[in-house]
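BUG: 3D viewer hangs when loading the predicted structure for this chain

Environment: internal workstation, default settings.
Expected: structure renders.
Actual: progress bar stalls at 90%.

Input used:
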Amino acid sequence: MENPTEEHMVAVKHILRYVKGSLSLGCFYKRDEMKELKLMGYSDSDLAGDIDDRKSTTGVIFYLGSSPITWSSQEQKTVALSSCQAEYIAAVAAACQGIWLARLLTDLFGERDIKILLKVDNQSAISLSKNPIYHERSKHIETRYHFIRECVEKGQVVIEHARTEDQMADILTKALGRVKFLEMRRRIGMTVTG
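Structure tokens produced before the viewer hung:
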């Protein structure tokens, strides 16, 4: 912000052009789907996507029924040493978000025991979250990220594998080609509104 370069100005113009061209897009929520409190989230990450500090990006999107209700994309606080670690950190962020959403839905609708289904596309991260035994392969992962194991043990979070093609959070973690971007934007629920 203090010393923008020409490269920054090109990026800002690119963003503004996209915003101008997508003003008619929005999320559409179906009333009958909101009656069933089915909370499903997707978490994804890239590995060392930031070329300056080599940190990964976490992407998380949650759906209530088939409608997106919250999404985020943020740089991870630590440098991941493997794709498993990057995906595991993203899954922990998603679990925390999901638990908060479940509590909010409980407060709003009085429902109890809202299960959180979390879709992750990395089998190693799924195995690590379901196995409470520490392995040589995971000793470098900070203890705070093992919070997800407790959530899985208690049954608060159910983790399932998502094929890479079906990973809805993919759009939040990396640059996609135009065709893939438009397809993913449509699939996550962005539609032309009134």
